[in-house]
Amino acid sequence: MICPMTRKTRQQGFSLLEILIAFSILALSIAILLKIFAGGVQTAAVAEDYTMAVQLAESLMVRAGVETPLQAGQILGRDNDKYNWQVVVTPYRFSPPDVDASKLTTEFFVVDVSVSWDDEGTNGRSLELSTLKLRSKPVEPPS
Q1: Residue 3 has what pLDDT?
Q2: To which H or E segment does residue 59 belong?
Q3: Exposure pattern of 86-109 as b/e (b: 16+ CB <10 Å)?
Q4: pLDDT value at position 93?
Q5: Can you list the residues of the chain whose pLDDT is less than 70?
Q6: pLDDT of residue 70
Q7: Quick one: DSSP state of residue 68?
Q8: What's the rounded Cα separation, in Å, for the pair 57 and 125?
Q9: Terminal-to-terminal C-alpha distance of the chain
Q10: Lateral strand order in the sheet of 73-79
Q11: Fewest beta carbons less than 10 Å away: which of 1, 9, 52, 124?
């Protein structure tokens, strides 16, 4: 029979060093995950700003020639106390081959829309859209 006092007793549980290392790894993992989620939230906010800016620019582009006359000029404005916009309409001159430009019944205009905004005061962001629109030439009475 072996005496219980002479036999080495095996230690049960974790040492303090093992617990400290495990908590350090856990804290580091949580910090990395929080940084990833914070970056995702920031990216979603930037994407939302771009979406709103594109919708505003498309809306302004559609209005040109419908709500406002399609003529050369520039219009400036501000929307939602955040987005500054500019619509520039310029005539588009071209001469198709074998066509007398004076006989054309339509005029072409280039509509450029620019929208800019501040991204939480750190850096400005902007986007530009451009399209070509038609307008019937005014009919001049024969003289």
Answers
A1: 54
A2: helix 16-63
A3: ebbbeeeeeeeeeeeeeeeeebeb
A4: 81
A5: 1-11, 95-96, 101-102, 120-122, 140-143
A6: 87
A7: B
A8: 14
A9: 134
A10: 73-79, 83-92, 106-119, 123-136
A11: 1
